[in-house]
């Protein structure tokens, strides 16, 4: 499959057209960013590691019957994906209090939740991805009521797959974000599942293995990413 024109470039990925209108090439960059791009650094091999972890996790979801856009890895940093009509919202599932949830509610980071928390956010770098709810989504026509319900259903199904998967590797899935798009009349999980978009802590020590190592200047960012891959059994 030939990579065509650049369709979109974000902080951590590039998306290219192909000769197949239903297929795109997703390229993972070595760029690490935080705070809406205000903090930025190039980390050699980050793109390759994220590409491999994403492919592994997407394949695990697909094996569990969850529709995903990932098709196959085509190079060290690139994967073929389905061409989705992306919704302008993202879902966040939280199993443990951390990040913005701790700041918003004045809770101590690491507080266990009796049940997962689900939140919607509007995708807008300029606005800082503000938190929204289903009434905003329906009022502005960003998705139908059926699609809202489907996003919630799929998000919790993803949680049911990922939580035990990471626990088997000695990791706690603290939280993660998902994006969705339309494909052939149905909703599909898109974007990525990597340490850039989820929080993962060591089950025993609480050590942060994810992008918070970059956000909080904890050091050894790529070593944390590699450790996640090793514990999952990903061929890095």
Provide a concise account of the structure shown:
By secondary structure, the chain is an alpha+beta fold. The chain contains six helices and 13 strands.
Describe the structure.
- A hairpin with an 8-residue loop joins β9 and β10.
- It is globular and about 50 Å long.
- It has 236 residues and is of the alpha+beta class.
- α1 runs parallel beside α6.
- The chain starts with a strand and ends with a helix.
- Helices cover 30% and strands 36% of the residues.
- The strands form 3 sheets. Strands 8, 9, 10, 11, 12 and 13 form a 6-stranded antiparallel sheet that branches.
- The chain is built from 6 helices and 13 strands.
**CATH class category of the largest domain:** Alpha Beta
Count of separate DSSP helical elements: 6
Reading the helices and strands in chain order gives EEEEEHEEEHEEHHEEEHH
Tell me, what's the shape?
A: globular
Span between N and C termini? 23 Å
CATH fold label of the largest domain: D-amino Acid Aminotransferase, Chain A, domain 1
Q: What integer value in Å does the Rg equal?
A: 17 Å
Average pLDDT works out at: 96
CATH architecture level-2 label of the largest domain: 2-Layer Sandwich
The helix content is: 25-40%
Low-confidence stretches: none
Q: Give me the secondary-structure category.
A: alpha+beta
Total E-strand runs: 13
Q: Per DSSP, what share of the residues sits in E-state strands of 2 or more residues? A: 35-45%
CATH superfamily of the largest domain: ATP-grasp fold, B domain
Number of domains: 2
Q: Tell me about the biggest sheet?
A: 6 strands, antiparallel
GO molecular function, one term: ATP binding
Family: Belongs to the SAICAR synthetase family.
Catalytic activity: 5-amino-1-(5-phospho-D-ribosyl)imidazole-4-carboxylate + L-aspartate + ATP = (2S)-2-[5-amino-1-(5-phospho-beta-D-ribosyl)imidazole-4-carboxamido]succinate + ADP + phosphate + 2 H(+)
Keywords: ATP-binding, Ligase, Nucleotide-binding, Purine biosynthesis
